[in-house]
């Protein structure tokens, strides 16, 4: 027998502290009965419903992948191209959270935790993503100031959280620009640069929320720690 809040957290629904809040608010049921006492213990086989969601005992897996170029962000491809799922050997049916373009590299989360995946991809999550773009041309104030002030995409003004010039290569006529966004529009970063007259040659997502791939070689992956999973749940619940 384990404490109810510990079981809920272990099943990946939310952090233990958040589970305690949900129990006290009467949002947790065990075998059809609402439970509000934090000391309640449950055993295997008991039905647990949190906020109307039936918790499954399927073991959850969470992976951070440094996606390489030329790999599809999908679970399968009708052209038989390699997918991000092919890079992680597991018997669980994991899937990518969000997407990266075929030629875009960097941080990508994969999991079989649908609750967390849906929360992270929902617009209300305000998930911060940092991209490093190599662009054709010498990026200057005439490009970066309009970008910082906001660009219209699909009739909506997109204002990046941060824009920073990292490097200029005058010999080759290229620049490295760091851009941080929290939106998730189709080809968003490439289109933002295009609107200010800069063509993206290479694009890498350096970080996803607080997860980064600075020490993870291209094509490599690692499992998230329980603390990191709880932090992701805390992050999205905070922004609900």
Please provide a written account of the structure:
Strand 11 (151-153) and strand 12 (156-158) form a beta hairpin. Helix 1 packs across helix 2. The protein has helices spanning 4-10, 16-24, 114-121, 141-149, 188-195, 226-238; strands at 2-3, 28-30, 33-34, 41-42, 48-50, 53-54, 62-67, 95-96, 104-111, 129-136, 151-153, 156-158, 162-169, 174-181, 199-208, 211-212, 221-223. The mean pLDDT is 91. The chain has three domains: 2-54, Structural Genomics Hypothetical 15.5 Kd Protein In mrcA-pckA Intergenic Region, Chain A; 62-124 and 211-238, Alpha-Beta Plaits (2-Layer Sandwich), CATH 3.30.70; 128-208, Alpha-Beta Plaits. The radius of gyration is 21 Å and the shape is elongated. It has 240 residues and is an alpha+beta fold.
């Amino acid at each position: 027998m384990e404490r109810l809040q510990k079981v809920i957290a272990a099943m990946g629904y939310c952090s233990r502290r958040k589970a305690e809040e949900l129990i006290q608010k009467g949002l947790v049921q065990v075998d059809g009965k609402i439970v509000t006492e934090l000391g309640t213990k449950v055993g295997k086989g008991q039905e647990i419903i949190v906020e109307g969601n039936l918790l499954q005992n399927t073991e959850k897996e969470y992976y951070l992948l440094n996606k390489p170029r030329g790999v599809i962000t999908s679970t399968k491809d009708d052209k038989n191209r390699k997918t991000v799922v092919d890079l992680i050997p597991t018997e669980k049916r994991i899937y990518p959270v969000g997407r990266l373009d075929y030629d875009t590299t960097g941080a990508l989360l994969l999991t079989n935790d649908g609750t967390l995946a849906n929360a992270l991809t929902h617009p209300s999550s305000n998930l911060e993503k940092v991209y490093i773009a190599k662009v054709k041309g010498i990026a200057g104030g005439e490009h970066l100031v309009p970008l910082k002030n906001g660009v219209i995409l699909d009739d909506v003004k997109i204002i990046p959280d941060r824009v920073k010039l990292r490097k200029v290569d005058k010999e080759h006529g290229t620049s490295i620009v760091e851009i941080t966004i929290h939106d998730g529009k189709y080809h968003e970063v490439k289109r933002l640069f295009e609107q200010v007259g800069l063509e993206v040659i290479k694009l890498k997502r350096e970080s996803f929320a607080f997860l980064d791939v600075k020490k993870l070689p291209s094509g490599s992956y690692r499992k998230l720690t329980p603390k990191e999973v709880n932090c992701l749940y805390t992050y999205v619940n905070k922004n609900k």
